[in-house]
Amino acid sequence: xxxxxxxxxxxxxxxxxxxxxxxxxxxxxxxxxxxxxxxxxxxxxxxxxxxxxxxxxxxxxxxxxxxxxxxxxxxxxxxxxxxxxxxxxxxxxxxxxxxxxxxxxxxxxxxxxxxxxxxxxxxxxxxxxxxxxxxxxxxxxxxxxxxxxxxxxxxxxxxx
Length: 160
Prior knowledge:
Helices cover about 20% and strands about 30% of the residues. By secondary structure, the protein is α/β, with parallel strands linked by helices. It has a single domain (about 1-160), classed as Purple Acid Phosphatase, chain A, domain 2 (4-Layer Sandwich). A hairpin with a 4-residue loop joins β10 (about 145-150) and β11. The chain is globular.
């Protein structure tokens, strides 16, 4: 099963659309968003994805009530622990405890955002992924990740 991972979209609707188009072209079945939609209207750019969607709030998500109304039960407080395709996943926005959670051995995958810097690495048997920034505002290099749950591998992809 292929999963698309994004974070730090910060209202950049054009790049959100590029990300969902890239995910669709890769056969992604589910999108994970590691926080910082920023505004509820980002829903317009994500609603046409024909697959699953799971997200958490980030530190810049201001109108959480309206975001929750628009996205429904797919948006959660962090950290959020769940399973997809028999893989145990923890997703958070901030990075401070990512390594500790990975080292605990309780999770197959740890996903975080916030730093805007893409990361794919292992801590023991746990895959740690930060997809970077969809917005491109901080580093000028917008990116996402595609995660293969069967192979337990991830690839960072630029948004061009």
